[in-house]
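ESCALATION

Customer reports they have been waiting on this structure for their group meeting. Please prioritize. Original submission:
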Amino acid sequence: MEGGSGSTQMYVVPLRAYYYSKDEKLLVSNYMPAGSLFTLLHGRGEGRTPVDWDSRVKIFLGSARGIAHIHSESGGKCSHGNIKSCNVLLTQDLDGCISDVGLTPLMNFPATMSRTTGYCVPEVVETRKFTQKADVYSFGVLLHEMLTGKVPFQYPGHHDVVVDLPRWVRSVVCEEWTTEVFDVELLRHQHVEKQMVQMLQISLACVSKSPDMRPNMDDVAKMIEEVQQSDVTNRPSSESESNLQTP
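Update from on-call: job pushed to the front of the queue and completed.
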């Protein structure tokens, strides 16, 4: 799944079949061997492997390209409406791919929002209308989730304290305690602090309270590409070569 904007469709999970009835609506898609981003980040157990910086950047980029592709469809009028870590599925090589495309318009509003509380977009609560700029906001929360390691909503079987991630991140950054934002698993990696801060700035732009101030997903994908390229360029050669050889 390497490549630029010409391969963005590859970052959307292909639909193979569907079932539609009054009581049940199902999508059948390709099997994604590495599961969901949510499980990768928040799964628990002795066998869990911490997600390193390179892997997270790769997932950032694939997810951004997938949403950008969705936004380009139907003359640029399509949106997803339910961007969250459960809907980012991963290939064996940890490319992030967007799933559940097209379901939101078929679901009633209260049910949809109840499942995406942590990614809730301020203007959508008032207008009940999902837009591309709302997708950008939810993607910004997704970036916060990957950068902080925090869960933006309560989920069964876990009792973590749920925080309003955009508000919490803004408050920490305003106090100039930026390093306190990042997941402790990321702080173990050397020479990536600058790239982490750059990615944090992208996420803050995405969750701007004003929809007009948020970038579009094409621009977000390009900014993430620049961070990825600068990361490899600025890293000491021995570490760069080591990470590039990591599956």
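Sent to customer with the following note: The chain has one domain: 32-237.
Escalation resolved.
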